[in-house]
Amino acid sequence: MTAPPLPREVSRAFGALPAPIGKRLLQVRELIFATAAAHHDVGKLTETLKWGEPAYLTDETGSGSTIRLGRLKDSEHAAILFNCKTTLVDTFRGRFPDEFEYRQTRALLLPLSGALPKQELTVCLSLALTYHLDRRVRKAR
What we know:
Blueprint: H1 8-16, H2 19-37, E1 46-50, E2 53-57, E3 67-70, E4 78-82, H3 88-95, E5 101-103, E6 107-110, H4 118-129, H5 131-140
Helix pairs in contact: 2-4
């Protein structure tokens, strides 16, 4: 599956980023939609802006935690941002300690050059897109 056309306001947000960051995050956007499509429990994603940044929500099913794409002020990397009240970034850090750079419990940073680590990133995105499903299963036990 390829990602749907960019909504106008989201396209503007990508365009406002420095070109190398915007290009890298558009690659991540494609991966978000492909990952969501591979999980029937995720449903149709909502693509919108949160805090002026492209954001991906599982409104249809409530299966996941919001994923935002942007940058951090103190970094030249592309950033994938997650709700800091989740355990997602700690989980990513445990699984892929050397693959990514992290910021506290809120961000996974990607270098702007080189191949996108798609396999590892797909695991991280999958965990975010199904975060609430996983929690519901744990609570039911």
